[in-house]
User: What shape does this take?
Amino acid sequence: MDATQFDDAADTVETFTHESAYTLEVDVEGSVTAKAGSMIAYEGDLSFTGTASAEGGITGMIKEAATGEDAPVMEVEGDGTLYLADQQKKIQVLRLGADDAITVNSEDILVFEPSVDFAVETMDSLAGAFAGGFTNVTLSGPGCVAITTHGDPLVLEPPVSTDPSATVAWSGVSPSIEIERNLSDMIGQESGERFQMNFDGDGFVVVQPYEEL
Assistant: This one.
């Protein structure tokens, strides 16, 4: 995959269709995995099963590392049409080929097809620094995925350094974490600028105009 998939021109990618920039229509024939709480309506015969715990089918996929509280996902099964949205965030639909993979901040995953594999990882150097934690999920194709961003995403090519709180996803590269010790904490909270994610290599990085602390 490449950064051109973030162009707004593609309103439909196989089973995923934009109803608007903030609402996604999903044609369910079998199952999909979606962020819990993102269903706003559905038509047809669909059932919803939560998988919040580590023993669940998603292996505790989305978790707030600092508090230990789960932000669960759900399996949607059946035959029907599902409508999803997440706090009026913009929805980006991507199609992953068999050799494609993208790593996404767990808070920004909306839905993906059952053919998409996933692997969960937590950045230990960042997990305790921010209230939301930094749990990331690597999604591997083939299949369709949808992710969300606050506002229009900015897609950058490495080398680039980003604020972890504004970093949504990356593909083809892996970040290294740098701590800027010259930026002291002056207001009793961790500053995103103290921590930087440095990317280098052949790929792209997606950031949003919002710090998701």
